[in-house]
Design a protein that fits this description.
alpha+beta; 1 helix; 14% helix
Amino acid sequence: MKFNSCLWICRAILVVWAGSASAQSQVLISEFMASNTRILADQDGDYSDWIEIHNSGSIPVNLADWYLTDSDTQLNKWKFPSVSLDANGYLVVFASGKDRAAAGAQLHANFSLAAQGEYLALVQPDGTTVASEFAPQYPEQLPDYSYGVVGGVNYYFAKPT
């Protein structure tokens, strides 16, 4: 009887873990702008670089302890606060260098993006598993054009989505 109870509990834990892993694999960097001069202003009125995160999954994902980075040698550069990303939802994080990570407020990474191109990644809470990346670096960016992924292919967007 004890064995059956343990087996049931172990199966329940495995189902929860598997659901969490598949939800995490659905979160990615869908678009970014590394040379924002007039498209999207932050709360301070600054036209900072920005990164859009998309949850293409069917369940919400809490981004607590996920990371954004512009360094392939420092994957845990900027940590997300506890913020839920709805199923099929989007979230903009400004890459302004302002380092603001308060849940419920506008998010600002502690780095900005290089218009000439650099590494960019979204990293899962373990600090080592890359969920989404532009590697070894994204191409040179044009002012007020965003760059992102559609159907697994990278594009420039004259009108950011």
